[in-house]
Specification:
CHP02453; UCP028451; single chain; alpha+beta; DUF2461 domain-containing protein; 9 helices
Length: about 220
C-alpha cells in the first residue's frame, strides 16, 4: 500500500462539501470506503514512523460523522479527515495530530485545551522561569518548521493571581500550547509529504519532552508520578 496521499481524497472531500447530505453520502458510500482505506493506511504508516522517534501508544482516526446536536451547522459530515497519535505512559504528555482537507491541511502537536490543573501548572512554570521554554520555541529548528507557537486562544489580560506586567505574560495568557505547520494541497500530494510529517514531529520532540517534565513534576522539580 502506498504511503502517498492520492488526489482522489481531495476530489471526494470537495464533492462532499458541495453535497453534504445523507442521500449523497449513501449513494457514494463505496467511494468513501475506498478513500478511508487509503487514508487509514497512510495514518498507520505515520504511527509506525513516529514509533521510531517516540513511544506511541496508538492512533485515533476520527469518524467523518459530525455531532450536530449543539451546532447551528446541521451538515451531517466533516469535510476533512484527521487522526491523532497518543504518547504512551504517564511520563509522556502531549500528542500529535494530522488533518487532511482541501486548502487547509496541517499537522500539529502539543497541548490543546489542557485541563484546568495542567493549565495552571504550565502557567506557574512560565511564571517561575520562562527561559527554557523560550529557548526551545525560539530554536532554529522549531522556528523554521513551525514559526513558534500557533496563535490559539488566549486571555485578554493576566489570569487571576498573575502579574499582568510579568515578562512572560504573553505565554501565561495562552489557553493552549500548539506547534502547527500548514501544507498546501500540492505539498500534501507530494511523495515526500510522509517524510515531512515525520521530520516535523521529530523537530517537536524536545518541546513535548520539556512540557512532559513540567506536567509530571511540582514546582520544586519533584516527581508526581
Amino acid at each position: 500500500m502506498s504511503i502517498q496521499i492520492q488526489p482522489s481524497i481531495f476530489k471526494f472531500l470537495n464533492a462532499l462539501k458541495e453535497n453534504n447530505t445523507r442521500e449523497w453520502f449513501a449513494e457514494n458510500k463505496a467511494w468513501f470506503t475506498e478513500e478511508e482505506i487509503q487514508l487509514k493506511a497512510f495514518f498507520t504508516k505515520i504511527m509506525e514512523g513516529l514509533r521510531i522517534e517516540d513511544d506511541i501508544e496508538g492512533m485515533k482516526a476520527y469518524r467523518i460523522y459530525r455531532d450536530v446536536r449543539f451546532s447551528k451547522d446541521k451538515s451531517p459530515y466533516k469535510i476533512y479527515r484527521s487522526c491523532s497519535f497518543k504518547r504512551a505512559t504517564e511520563a509522556l504528555r502531549g500528542g500529535y495530530h494530522v488533518e487532511i482537507t482541501p486548502g487547509g491541511s496541517f499537522l500539529a502537536c502539543g497541548f490543546w485545551a489542557p485541563s484546568k490543573e495542567d493549565l495552571l501548572r504550565i502557567r506557574k512554570e512560565f511564571e517561575m522561569d520562562s527561559d527554557e521554554i523560550n529557548e526551545i520555541i525560539n530554536s532554529v529548528a522549531i522556528q523554521k518548521t513551525f514559526g513558534g507557537f500557533h496563535n490559539g486562544e488566549a486571555l485578554k489580560t493576566a489570569p487571576k493571581g498573575f502579574d499582568k506586567e510579568h515578562k512572560a505574560i504573553d505565554l501565561i495568557r495562552k489557553k493552549d500550547f500548539i506547534l502547527l505547520r500548514k501544507f498546501t494541497d500540492e505539498e500534501v500530494l507530494d511523495p515526500n509529504f510522509y517524510n515531512e510529517v515525520i521530520k516535523s514531529f521529530k523537530v517537536a520532540r524536545p518541546y513535548l519532552d520539556y512540557m512532559s517534565d513540567v506536567l509530571t513534576t511540582n514546582l520544586n522539580g519533584e516527581s508526581l508520578i
